[in-house]
């Protein structure tokens, strides 16, 4: 697969990104911890504040709405990624 279509299933989309080296496989923050490099860990432990971008996977539309209601950055950070926006 070299392109992503509207009909692409979420697992195909993730697999494409993993194979391209763009994203990690899904990890559970609660059970697997935050996926970081040793350098990022060191920076945290030394009092730094490295920015680590995370993509949240939703179970369904209702779950997305519940997360967005509880986490405002999930709303305002998506603006440049919405269709027709740049």
Q: In percent, how helical is the residue content?
A: 40-55%
Radius of gyration: 15 Å
Shape: globular
How many H/I helices? 5
Query: Could you tell me the number of beta strands?
Result: 0
- Major β-sheet profile: none
Question: Would you kindly provide a written description of the structure presented here, covering whatever features stand out?
Answer:
This protein has 86 residues and is an all-alpha fold. Among the domains are: 25-52, no CATH class; 55-86, no CATH class. It is built from five helices and no strands. It has helices spanning 10-20, 29-32, 38-45, 61-70, 73-76. The longest helix is centred in the N-terminal third of the chain and has 11 residues, at 10-20. The mean pLDDT is 88.
Summarize the structure.
This protein is mainly α and 86 residues long. Helices cover 43% and strands 0% of the residues.
Topology:
Elements: H1 10-20, H2 29-32, H3 38-45, H4 61-70, H5 73-76
Keywords for this entry:
86 residues; mainly alpha; 43% helix; 0% strand; globular
